[in-house]
Design a protein that fits this description.
The complex is a heterodimer of chains A (391) and B (128). By secondary structure, chain A is α/β, with parallel strands linked by helices. Chain A starts with 7 loop residues before the first strand and ends with a strand. Chain B has one domain: OB fold (Dihydrolipoamide Acetyltransferase, E2P), CATH 2.40.50. In chain B, the strands form two sheets. Chain B has a five-stranded antiparallel sheet with strand order 5-4-3-6-7. A two-stranded antiparallel ribbon of chain B has the order 1-2. Classes of the chains: A alpha/beta (391), B mainly beta (128). At the A-B interface, α4 and β5 of A face β3, β4 and β5 of B.
Amino acid sequence: MSIRGKACIAGIYEHPTRKAPDKSLAQLHAEVAAGALADAGLSFSDVDGFYCAGDAPGLGGMSMAEYMGLNLRHIDTTETGGSSYVIHVNHAAQMIAAGKIDVALITLAGRPRSEGMATGTAPRIYDQNAPDVGFEAPYGPTVVNMYAMAAMRHMHEFGTTSEQLAWIKVAASTHAQYNEHAMLRDVVTVEDVVNSPMISDPLHRLDCCVISDGGGAIVMVKPEIAKSLKRPVVKYLGGGETIKHLNSGNVDLTYTGARHSGPPAFEESGVKHGDIKYASIYDSFTITVLETIEDLGFCEKGQGGKFVSDGNLISGVGKLPFNTDGGGLCNNHPANRGGMTKVLEAVRQVRGEAHPKVQVPNCDIALAHGTGGSIGTRMGSATIIIGQEDA
Amino acid sequence: MPQESYIHPPINPETKEFWDAAKQGKFLVPRCPDTGKYLWFPRRVSPFTGKTNVEYVEGKGTGTIYTFSVMRRSKQPYCIAYVTLDEGPTIMTNIVNVDYDTVEIGMKVKVTFKDLNDEAALPLFEPA
């Protein structure tokens, strides 16, 4: 039995704030939840399934369920960093298809910018009991030098260049100029990127995403409810997810979990690569996009550098328009977790509600991919494919 | 240059033998006795068999740089790397006692130890 079309995305909301010193974390979660429900034409009282991750305050989703007054039949607090929310879309679709719930709410929010967090350049230990900590934390792994090591190896094996990586930022910035909420709206050039300060070789400042406050939310419903609402029906067509890790020391940093989360999404949806009109690709760093595009099968492994060059990711110019909101590289990376905003822009594209300057014509089928954790160590990966009502 | 300061590794019953040996200047590598495979990070339960019988054996302490990156935005730049041990596993470490501009993938390296306190010494790698 295929899950294709058995669940729909009915509401989305991206918080307009990028710096929220005046709001609490719980308030941000509640505001994005209310926003997505209002977009769908629903309310807190309609929700019977709640999904959140480690960014939500309180134990699991309990405090936020209480804050919003939710009466739940299903709870899922799967935590895989920035990919969590794409995994949540998969899980919500499965629960809706199984008839366990009617209305799923997925929330993300955070305020690392207001809290002055050195997101990328200071080591963070999530859990002293994690078995890897003693053998990694002393060496100063930060977000950026972990991704940098993946980039360094990819360059070594495949001849990928900093200029090729820079094209990814150029494409994101070209889109971000039209997003009034984007943190960085200036269009940059390849030269701007490669001449920006080196953070951790070979990644420059402009290879890195922004640090922003804010959040987002998604409402999913069963198809009968979607048809009764006023918003365009966006169907869930298929998805996949995995954890990729260091494999007992058999390390290969030139590929990501997308190699395993992508194929089931294409298989379930019955969609071919050429059918994908738009792709949201997690862009914590330029290298994240390049490896993910290869792993999802849009080009051969090692050919990502050529694929992303010369504007191929720019809407209206290239073959694979990506991150038309400006992505994490320019628009928003709330709570240091970009999976949510990846889904939101893919939904806007399928609805035909992206900014007119970046809207892909007849965007009947789109893909969104989330990466969480680190491509330099262990990561959660999730892929979804969504489409218009007749897709 | 090494890091300005090091986060001390949490030592637990599963890893104490590794860290005790490191304090004595010995570099241990975990090995699954049933398959003969070396693995990383140190753990007692074999991911290959499910048995609680992984042993820590003294390694050569030599390997090859798989990848690396020099962090420029810390108080003192440092070089993080993955080194593929001659026994097989690839492990995270720092490359020290070297001009960072000369570090490259494929460089041969050997282990050296940095005393952190009375309990712990940290294995690092330097050019062989």
